[in-house]
Amino acid sequence: MTLFEPSHFDLELLNEIGRWKVIPLKGLYERASQGMTYSPFCRRIKRIEKLGLVRSIMGSRGLKYLVLTQEGSTLAHFKSPYLESDTELTHDLIVSRLLCDLLEFSNFHTGHIVHMGEGLNPEPDALIHATKSGTPYRLALEIELHQKSNKRVREKFARYVTTSDCDHVLYVMNKPDVFHSYQAITIEMDKKVSQKIVLMLEPNLGARQVEYQKARCWFKAKEMSFNEIFA
Q1: Half-sphere exposure of 224 (CA within 13 A, CB side)
Q2: Which domain, by its residues, includes 35?
Q3: What is the pTM of this model?
Q4: How many distinct structural domains can be found in the chain?
Q5: How would you class 171 by CB atoms within 10 Å of its CB: exposed for 0-12, middle for 13-18, buried for 19 or more?
């Protein structure tokens, strides 16, 4: 255990890292620097990293990502120490990056990576608080990098229809076969499924910035643009 007494700013940094579960260093700087210039901010991060409160992970293209340690998790609002496998890391980096991009959309106001123990059922990858025509709603976010069995998909769709934890669900996938398979399932199931679940095909999910507003979307049993659905 460290004898370090974190400042209010340090706690804000830990909370922000925990909110995203895994976040690029530059993304954290953009969201939580509070006017500090980049070099002093990086020194501050190195300080709390040396104290064992956060650790860094090197992602693709040499980008540095930050996660909470077990000790850092005890001080943060989101209790999310990170113990990743290679597969989980790839998925979580994409979720974090996509959520960052989506929150730049004017009708998407706040959001966070969903952590175990929040009590959501089903448990999505992330949750966005949004509005449309002035009406607030909650949008669950699911990233599908691999095809799941039709039975498993149907079961989860059915659970999303009955839950009150979110108003809509955005499934994002990067493979056309997965997109078309999920399309067929929404058509086969009860009409309530197609009214609650949005599908998006974005082949460049691994890109540094996702052009989600140009992606193909499927909602209410027809193809629609992103802006038609969410603007």
Answers
A1: 16
A2: 8-83
A3: 0.83
A4: 2
A5: buried
